[in-house]
Amino acid sequence: METSVTQLEERTNLVTAPPAVPPQSIAETVIEPKPGWRAIDFAELWQYRELVFFLTWRDVKVRYKQTVMGAAWAVIQPLLTSLVFVVLFGMMAGMRERTNVPYLALVFAGQMAWQFFQGAVTTSGQSLVTSANLISKVYFPRMIVPLAAVGAGLVDFVMSLGVMAIILVFYGIVPPIQVVMLPILLLGVVMTAVGVGSLLAALTVAYRDFRYVVPFLVQMWMLSTPVGYQMEEVYRLLDKAGIDQSWLGLYFTLNPMAGFVQGFRWCILGETLDPLYMFASGCSAIVVLIIGSVYFRRVERRFADIV
Amino acid sequence: MNSPAIQVDAIGKQYQLGLREKANETLREALVEMAKAPLKRLRHLSGQSDEGSTFWALRDVNFDVPEGEVLGIIGHNGAGKSTLLKILSRITEPTEGRAVIRGRVASLLEVGTGFHVELSGRENVFLNGAILGMSKAEITRKFDEIVAFSGVEKFLDTPIKRYSSGMKVRLAFAVAAHLEPEILIIDEVLAVGDQEFQNRCLGKMHDVARSGRTVLFVSHNMAAVESLCTSAMLLKAGKVLSIGTVREIVGQYLSGINAGAAAGRYENPDSPLREVRLVASDDRGVTDTVVCGQPATVQVVIRPEMPISDPAVRLVVVSHNGQRIFTCNSRFQYQRLATTGQELELHCLFEGVRLVPGDYTLSATLLSASQELAVAEPAIRFSVAPGDIYGTGRIPQQVGKGVYFPHVTWSSTNASADSLMNDESVPSNSLSKVS
After folding, report:
1. Average of per-residue pLDDT values in chain A
2. Which of A175, B51, B238, B405 has its CA 20 to 30 A from that of A94?
3. Which of B88, B95, B101 is the best mutation test for A, with the most CBs of A within 10 A?
4. Mean per-residue pLDDT, B286-293
5. ipTM of this complex > 0.85?
6. Would you call B25 an interface residue with chain A, using a CB distance cutoff of 8 Å?
7. Residue of chain A nearest B187, judged by CA positions
């Protein structure tokens, strides 16, 4: 009880007190072992929001320094991957015969969400190890590190939004009204990315093997998510194999990214979307976020000692 | 309001020695570890658990720091100083105990934490400031001041990978120096940079110390501790040995160091560096007192287990307050030292001891071309007694003022005064250079 009061005092004070001037109420920090599970301290994160901004800004800035094409990479990567998917799935597998929208637009709408997710998970998974020098020398809420990595991915996402707009103009597609829902879907992707990213970041600190697990995991995850193909292909496959469609609910729950990728296509291109499945993915994103961050909070006290 | 700024109550920190082992660097190691794991568990169950695999870096540490006090924390390497600072800066959690800190804390365990080499000086000031806990507005406000203090104005927009290490350190310290916390925790930051820069840092820290802030300061530099701190604490093997006035504690620490050094002679039959002896000029044999101006010889006996490529011996003399006076390395003057694995004796003659009277310790290190093979630190302690260094019969007594008597010649444009000053001719032995 005492701790919570003092911590509250500290927060308010850290934000408002002019430094080096004797404050009215002295900020009091209690340092003691806090075993067990801890929830995310949102107030403290908010207090450190400028540091999140600076680390994000650093990541973005550093990524494109000394690269010839600079930020163009953020555009080229998803675009080229999409073109490969168009050739692979659309042409070679003949899937583009079965769609009503241009295959490139279809793929890119999903690719946008996936590319962001993949980048965010990969960089935030590595983030603690690459920030080892910070973690062992300065205190700040550790959660900031994977958060900033996800934040840097958002900057790239904004650029691929521009590419999406160009593709839409090129094909003369007008997005449906539900395009206003895009930020909510993006929030879902961000939550999933933060959850998975912080979980992988915490695991990578303790077990460096996860450096090898992450790229593999991401690749498998992408192939099992309808990024290069559309959701209808999954339905067709189920029909062919004689599997009951009700299993799809489990699929969307286990893989929230499937729901969000399909959601992006629904928002931008007006593709079909089952609200129930979308709901399953949304709930699953929240659960992933909670699991990842709670595990992170549990093991973060050891980071400085083992990183 | 009179409660202390820092209150530490039975703080302890336990480390697991095997912890690093868990962080497998490669997949292969991971698999090997996985195969070993059941074995380990078995050993655990059968009671042969790894008792030795944990150790207490700190145990039962209690102390209070009143507001405005500058507390120097001293102790040997591994005494737990850094661990204590890490706990108080909240970087790592204590295993037991409790500490209460009243006030905004900034900790400076390293200069330039979070600097990114690809970013420019300007960008790094903001990044580093934010990492140290400054707000953006605060950094913007102090930006010009920071840049002026660092002296790297011209290179502000150059990536710092093109900076010299000195410039980097100056910029980093400039940011840190503009932190304005109520409590400042500093670890050994003065151990970087050149002398001029260190003096500037010390000056800035004096300002901080006088501004009424509470400071915890860890250092091996006893001179810095003595000039900055208002009180001191001695840590040994994870425990607080004593707390008191700076003079008292520093004295205790240094006498602890000196206790490890024998007077005049060091012997260790198990080390390749077998013996270090101090011998005075007049063949009195081993001595612990040399006379200022008189010759003295340091004799080092080495017996390596195997031939060493390009061996050398390094001697370091440290004054009673922990200040390093000089280093001299045989490699620069004596190239013929070769070992065949046999015992050999190396002599280093000081033709005239020029150190000011006082107490000193001498350390010796045996080096090969690439590494230190054996260290005797400190090997021996000795005193320098006042002597007729200039051969004029007038004996300087300046104990503790400066560190050595320079080799100079005085003259004046007034011929009669000149002959008056040099009424006694200077003996040739004190003219010859000290090696």
Report:
1. 85
2. A175
3. B101
4. 84
5. no
6. yes
7. A137
Residue-number span of the structural domain to which A189 is assigned: 38-306
- Smallest CA–CA distance, residue B158 to chain A, in Å, is 13
Instruction: Name which of B100, B113, B119 is nearest A28 (Cβ-Cβ).
Output: B100
Residue A268 confidence (pLDDT): 93
Q: Tell me the percentage of chain A whose pLDDT exceeds 70.
A: 91
Q: Which residues contact B50 (CB under 8 A, 6 or more apart)?
A: B18, B43, B44
For residue A122, being part of any structural domain is answered with yes
Average pLDDT over residues A29-54: 86
Cβ-defined contact of A139 to B107 (cutoff 8 Å): yes
Of B15, B119, B131, the CB nearest to A305: B15
Confidence label for B232 from pLDDT (cuts 50, 70 and 90): very high
On whether residue A19 sits in a domain, the answer given is: no
Q: How far apart are CA A122 and CA B378, in angstroms?
A: 51
Identify whether A5 is part of a domain. Answer: no
Q: What is the C-alpha end-to-end distance of chain A, expressed in Å?
A: 32
What pLDDT is attached to residue B186?
Answer: 87
Spatial separation of the C-alpha atoms in residues B335 and B356, rounded to whole Å? 30
- Number of domains forming the structure of chain A: 1
From chain B, the residues in CB contact with A212 under 8 A are 27
Rg (CA), chain B: 27
d(CA A272, CA A301): 46
**Are A205 and A303 in contact, with CB atoms under 8 Å apart?**
yes
Mean pLDDT is lowest, of A88-92, B14-18, B119-123, B225-229, for: B14-18
Q: Pick from A249, A244, A268: which is nearest to A107 by CA?
A: A268
Q: pTM higher than 0.80 for the full model? A: no
C-alpha distance from B101 to closest chain A C-alpha (Å): 5
Q: Do A31 and B94 touch (CB under 8 A)?
A: yes
A130 in any annotated domain: yes
Listed in sequence order, the residues at least 6 apart from B356 whose beta carbon sits closer than 8 Å to its beta carbon are B292, B384, B396, B398, B399, B400, B401, B402, B403, B404, B405
State whether A133 and B113 contact (CB < 8 Å): yes
